[in-house]
Amino acid sequence: MAATIKPIEAKSVHQIQAGQVIVDLCSVVKELVENALDADATTIEVRFKNYGLDSIEVQDNGTGISEANHESLALKHYTSKLSTYDDLSELQTFGFRGEALSSLCALSSFTVNTAQAHEAPKGKRLQFETSGKLKSTSFIATQKGTTAIVENLFAKLPVRQKELSKNIKREYGKVLGLLHAYACISTEVKFTVKNTIPKARSAVVFSTKGNATTRDNIANVYGAKMLSQLIELDMKLDFQSTLTQLSRSDVDCTKVSVVGHISKPVFGEGRQTPDRQMFFVNGRPCGLPQIAKAINEVYKSYNVSQSPFIFADLKMDTNAYDVNVSPDKRTIFLHNATALTDKLKAALTERFDNIDQTVPQSEV
Ligand code: ADP
Ligand code: MG
């Protein structure tokens, strides 16, 4: 007998979709840190309890959330950043879909403490229902800015919660990799990351200084010794577009520059591991597997036994890529990836070939 086709109940739809936005611990931290950056924070503190299993808190000193927005804060597709699809290509913010906070309500116990400049040190503590509706509001003492608190992540999806606790150390390692990327690229923001494990004191995992260069940030995150192993990348790549029909005629998608730092292709001390590789598009941390592969391949042709440290920011017109590819926004689609990759390999080879003529970067 054929089953009747009928709609899934709204609550279940919300949970199913939430599970695609917030897929793991990394997505939680990514969404909350990006919200803090979007709110113009200059200090961001990320606090884990028990590696994130018990709670994750992200505190910023940004704009805070106005009282008028408290009710709609965690409703699905409510955002202050985008209102029509056409706005997407001009977007300067990390967030745009208004899905993160609503998803966190569906998957955890979610609380926000917030105060705008004129309200601090008196702020509001907001608690939300699974649906994203505001459940309760109370007064609380807090500095200007916002603290988002996620407790008992995935408690509402028991299978995923079990997976998370089984793999928590590995997940936490991935999160640190992500936080390294945000901390290193954010020259205007002081990042502090702490973890408290049961029966121990809270420990600072790393912190940056704020108002610093990317080199300073790298030294604070990876240790000053790292700097002597690095050379600067500043490569301008101009190439023929293979997909001009995708580009608007008034913008140029065929000019990309790559700025950042990479290990010298000589045998340095110790072994660099591939997890010290960070990629960005216009300062937005993202996975760029094709670009990563290309850079690693060139490096391997000079130094077969080590993997490089890579910090590579690809600067390009906002029309040359699409961030709206996957629900978690981790995938970025580059319109001219193949042509770009070929050009990049040639430029990096030239950079490595000319390494002796360049002035070494001074030690800190
Ligand atoms: P999005 O970032 O896509 O807009 P979110 O669900 O992440 O969606 O956030 C919803 C809205 O809540 C944001 O548009 C923003 O107005 C507000 N918001 C979230 N986090 C913060 C924060 N840390 N500081 C100030 N406003 C915030
Ligand atoms: Mg967001």
UniProtKB/TrEMBL annotation:
It comes from the Eukaryota. This is ATP-binding mismatch repair protein. The gene is PMS1.
